[in-house]
Give the backbone structure.
Amino acid sequence: MAGIAILFIVLGIMVKYGKMYSLIAGYNTMSSSEKEQINIEAIANVFRNGMFGMALIIAVGILLTEFTGNPSLQTNALFIAVFTGVPYFIIVPNLRKYKK
C-alpha cells in the first residue's frame, strides 16, 4: 500500500514539476488551439495537489493500521482516497477558472 502512495507522489511531481502534461487525460489529444485556451499550469497544480492528497490519505491509513493493528483501516483509506480523488480530478479542472 505504501507503494501506491509513493506512486501518487511521483505522478504528482511528474505532472507539475516534470511538465509531463500528457499524463493528464485528454490533454495530449487536444488541438493546439484548444491547448491555448486552458491554463495548464493551474491544472497541473490541481493534479499535484490531488495526487499528494490521495497519498496523504493512504499514508494516514497505513499509520492507523500500524497503531491499531486493524488492517481494514488501510483498505478503507485506499477506497476513501480513490472515491474522493477521482471526482476531484473530474470536477475541479473543468471549472471556468482554468480556462483562459
Notes: Helices lie at 2-16, 32-36, 40-68, 72-91. The chain has a mean pLDDT of 92.
